[in-house]
Design a protein that fits this description.
Layout (H helix, E strand, L loop, with lengths): L2 H19 L3 E9 L2 E9 L2 E10 L13 H17 L9 E10 L9 E6 L4 H30 L1
Parallel strand pairs: 3-4
Antiparallel strand pairs: 1-2, 2-3, 4-5
Length: 155
């Protein structure tokens, strides 16, 4: 395993430990969706978060969160929407879906002590609202079809 991949695995483990100690439940880790991957999926109460973990050995080329540009944010949002579309039950009891970044300073010896969480609650809400509207529409169509079938039986 190359050193960047190894650093990524260590950072993801540190991020997962940190989130669990903060009261989050781990829903998924390194979840493959199509050709992409969601680093962490966590839930606490009525909040579901898709977490991108970034680590840097130094800040010579920017902070870890600088590596999560608009393209990466859009990619994670799309992967999250696909994951949710395949698992509509995951939205049960959820009022907020968000995209968070966990930045890990890998220059420190104790990675658990240098985890920084950046929340971005708005990033995924539009996609989730769209999925909920689609699900409600499908339920209405199913109910309408079922009601039509009953009416045909009565005739």
């Amino acid at each position: 395993m190359d050193s960047r991949r190894h650093l990524g695995r260590i950072a993801e483990a540190a991020a997962a430990r940190h989130l669990v100690t903060e009261g989050w439940s781990l829903v998924g880790r390194n979840v493959r969706v199509g050709r992409g991957e969601l680093d962490l999926i966590v839930r606490r109460g009525d909040v579901l978060a898709f977490v991108e973990v970034k680590a840097r050995r130094s800040t010579d080329y920017g902070t870890p969160e600088d590596a999560v540009d608009g393209r990466k944010r859009r990619q994670v949002a799309r992967l999250a929407e696909l994951w949710l579309a395949a698992r509509p039950w995951a939205l049960t009891g959820v009022s907020e879906v968000r995209f968070d970044i966990v930045a890990v300073d890998a220059a420190a010896r104790d990675l658990d002590g240098v985890v920084h969480i950046i929340t971005g609650g708005v990033a995924l809400q539009n996609g989730v609202d769209h999925l909920r509207r689609q699900r409600k529409h499908a339920e209405r169509q199913r109910d309408t079809c079922a009601a039509g079938a009953v009416r045909d039986d009565i005739r």
